[in-house]
Amino acid sequence: MFLYQTVNDHVRILTSRGYGGVVRVPEKIGNLPVTELAEYAFSNSEGRNEMLSHMGNGIQMCDEEGNPASYEEKDLPPEITGDLLEDLYLPPSIRKIGNYAFYNCFKFRHLECYSSIADLGSGLFTGCLGIRNLDLHITDGSRSCMQGIVSELRQELYVNYYTKEMTARLIFPEMYEESVEHTPARIVFREMHGCGHLYRYCFDQSEFQFHKYDALFPHVRVQEPDRLTAALALLRLYTPLNLLPRDRKTYEDYLREHLQAAAEATQKESELFLWLAAEYCKDQTDFDRMMDLASENNNTELLSSLMDLRHLRFPVKKRTFSL
């Protein structure tokens, strides 16, 4: 269920109640579109309590489907705030998220939303170090909020970039800042570590630029572990949205040299693992290593598919005898 406030001709979500850590915000409540999340909406902090106290009698309630309802105080489920929030799904109608809406939601791990959110509040993801996955649906004809989101999330981030035609799977490496003091001069310098900050600048007028993203691959090769580098190259080849021929060749050359790292990075995704074997594993020794990896993980279905592919690609030669 949701606590909400009606503002003119739209609805602002104040907070959520329920069981479990998954929250799906409805697109409409009654006949009105849900366009906002209030400040501190999912934060278990004094700021949220203060926000709710200012609403007075303007707080209304609805069920999970967005149907207005009323509940007795004793029947209210617990608030899904702070450590209880894990997955959040926002509808395409959302245009604004208030300040510190997810403040200190330590177990928040996945966000799905649309790029048409026009107003992202300050300090939105403060304390949200657990977010690793972002599903972003790109809306044509509107300013994208993608840069605003990924620039606030400094940890290693896996983004599913959905368009009407295709999907791209992207990895944004980790970045972090360090303050270094120069004591004699009494000056503090800020040093940026990791190449993740470069990937946060692959935008032009808020639109994501794939060619800028792909051009940064040499930096990843030098600064990031093979696990991440191989996964980044593999996902771009697997979902080659706007991938230029020269960048494809760069990724493919790297992947052929680091097949084992790519296999280890994707061993939990059977479809992707099988695609890697089919497209890039041309050597029998490398192929057998991938089969061993599937066997170690007790993935019998994947192992069966690999065996079928192996028989086709490396058929056993019939023995001939001469008298």
Automatic annotation (TrEMBL):
Q: Which species is the source of this protein?
A: Lacrimispora xylanisolvens
Q: What is this protein called?
A: Leucine rich repeat (LRR) protein
* Pfam families linked to this entry: LRR_5
Query: Mind telling me which InterPro entries this protein's record contains?
Result: LRR_5, LRR_dom_sf
Judging by the UniProt lineage, the source's domain of life is Bacteria
